[in-house]
Amino acid sequence: MGENMSKPSAKPFQDVTFFTSFKPYNPPATNDAAPPRPSIFSTLRRPPVAKPNDFIPLFSDCITAASSRTQEYLIFKDPEDKFHPSPDALTQIFLMTYISQSVNLNLTDIFNCTAMTPEQRILLGADWVWAVLEKSTKNPRIQIAVQVLHLSDKEGGEEDGVLPETCSESVQMAQRESSDRNMYERMVDFCTSVGKDCYALFLFFGRKNDKSNIYGVLSNNFEAAIGKCDKIDRALLENFFKGSRYLHTPSGMMQSIVTRNEGDPLTLMIKFS
Amino acid sequence: MAATQDAKGKAEGADQNFDYMFKLLIIGNSSVGKTSFLFRYADDAFTSAFVSTVGIDFKVKTVYKNDKRIKLQIWDTAGQERYRTITTAYYRGAMGFILMYDITNEESFGAVQDWSTQIKTYSWDNAQVVLAGNKCDMEEERVVSVDSGRLLAEQLGFEFFETSAKDNINVKQTFERLVDLICDKMSDSLDGDPAVTAGAPTAKLTDSAPPLQQPGCNC
């Protein structure tokens, strides 16, 4: 590779061929009807074209900020044992930090984040949805639906993170509408209904053996697991980590998503903190 | 009343006292203003910031008609094609639709026929439809005339309103008309074939007797 390329002369002004390579500029025959040709120097002033994957480092920055902030509360031990941040509070800390960082970095035009309403959280099983946007239409090109799993969650995801006495009427209605499936299955169903460009990401705020870190398992193919198992539960999701030695970074995850061939299945384990 | 009470006589969670429950859907192209329309009706609020709806969402509002309490479960659907599978799944059991277009967007008006076909395909025959030409406050950018909207509504057999969620024009009226149409249809059905309403679509929304199975409809 590269052997056939000519090397520039070390002393160009002593090299005769260097000068002969500059030919006098002969303007083409003028044609009044034709638009003037742009100067070759105008290309130097061309504004940099944003590449489709330029947002990945910014996304990574936002995740770092959100994960670090959340981790502070995740590992917090109150000497008097009075403070116990609720699962909802931890989710909100992560999301609020992510959102403020993404707004500061001007990320939202290319990669946006939509927090779900309480009713949508029940119906679709997602806490929020990230989307890579089509440049011209601003419509989602790729989506990642995110559900946070807390160590304090009861098995099965039936509790929906909301205490019955604090449920609004509409939240109770949403629960009745979706009572045939648990929260994990609802999110997988939602992503499957959209298509292979919609990923489900289960975000673990602490795992049994590592309570202070944030992990994730992402796939656009969880429906295959439904086919093999009776139901999707936390144990099944945690099992993904057992079969994998490699944990992606958040930017590695995003890189894999944007470079994947359309329609291909993709499953990744990620460490977010 | 279809009040839901447990053995101890306590109301089960939130207020569930109502005579009827109607499931309504708002459908139409992306960015015609479906969510804003629902926010204006349910919360009397409006924001010009555009946030595209993900999948589906809903709000509940109770209205009164002839001393009857009618609970409206109003589903706000995403207009984008990628959510079509999930949104059409919620058409089943809907008793009324607000089919919305944007008077400043020709394409959204052109898509009304397709949305109407979707209703016929995924909903039941007795579902009532109101066509709403939204954003009528933007007169200077209008590309769809009132007459075109009215004519299309006539052709499709729908009622018609021009509306503005921003300026609160005809929002309440659209919902009230849809409720009237549903009540009329229920009365007609009960006068005729009672089987039409037996096992009606809202049955799964209540733990006790489905409201629509009550004899007669005086709403």
Automatic annotation (TrEMBL), chain A:
GO terms for biological process: receptor recycling. It comes from the Eukaryota. This is Sb:cb470. InterPro entries: Rab15_effector.
Automatic annotation (TrEMBL), chain B:
The keyword Lipoprotein applies. CDD domains: Rab3. Gene3D superfamilies: P-loop containing nucleotide triphosphate hydrolases. InterPro entries: P-loop_NTPase, Rab3, Small_GTP-bd, Small_GTPase, Small_GTPase_Rab. PROSITE patterns: RAB, RAS, RHO. It is a lipid-anchor. GO terms for molecular function: G protein activity; GTP binding. This is Ras-related protein Rab-3. The lineage of its organism: Eukaryota, Metazoa, Chordata, Craniata, Vertebrata.
